[in-house]
């Protein structure tokens, strides 16, 4: 059994792979100060509900964009799973070229997504990941990571409107029925939703023009499903992109060794 831990700025995903398929997935709010013991208590209860226990794992892989959390996640694997985890950015060989000026600055999540996309989709790719930030990452036909664009996430933009303008309420993000809102909530929802559609379409057009190659656009992340059916700029919606990339990295590093 493999435990994959994918930690973003907002949520942390724990996923269990039995060698053939993903059999369980759970999410927790990301808290940088959460200890290994706290993770173990939370995880052991969820595992028990699925008929599993901490002792079933033969390996663990960790991808985190929160550096101060890696220490505790590593201790979770060592102390409770009794394995030395693979950590993206530390002891894991990704097996791809990172073709940017400062390769060490590439976020673990962006590199994992690049690998997860390349193993399924051929040719040049743009991977859109909608989370705390919205990233647009270019993956070459050989799987190399060639950089991209980082923009504020849709939730962050909505929260910024509420926080900075005294009269603007906190509203749910959803696709409005029409472009021109007839009240404040409708106007905010339209501005954020259709504004992000315009952001996606505009950036994809510019990336394709700059690269000058046929490109497949793949979207993932917790908010990506909101955009499904709203734009033709996105070719595929793939919610499993990140954990597929982590599984591929684990296979490249552990299997056959």
UniProtKB/TrEMBL annotation:
Reactions the enzyme catalyzes: (R)-pantothenate + ATP = (R)-4'-phosphopantothenate + ADP + H(+)
GO biological process: coenzyme A biosynthetic process
Name of the top EC class for this enzyme: transferase
Keywords from the UniProt entry: ATP-binding, Coenzyme A biosynthesis, Cytoplasm, Kinase, Metal-binding, Nucleotide-binding, Potassium, Transferase
Annotated EC: 2.7.1.33
Residues reported to bind K(+): 129
Pathway(s) it belongs to: Cofactor biosynthesis; coenzyme A biosynthesis; CoA from (R)-pantothenate: step 1/5
Cofactor(s) the protein needs: K(+); NH4(+)
UniProt entry tagged with the keyword Cytoplasm: yes
Subcellular location, record wording: Cytoplasm
UniProt similarity note: Belongs to the type III pantothenate kinase family.
Function summary: Catalyzes the phosphorylation of pantothenate (Pan), the first step in CoA biosynthesis.
Protein's recorded name: Type III pantothenate kinase
Organism listed in the record: Phenylobacterium deserti
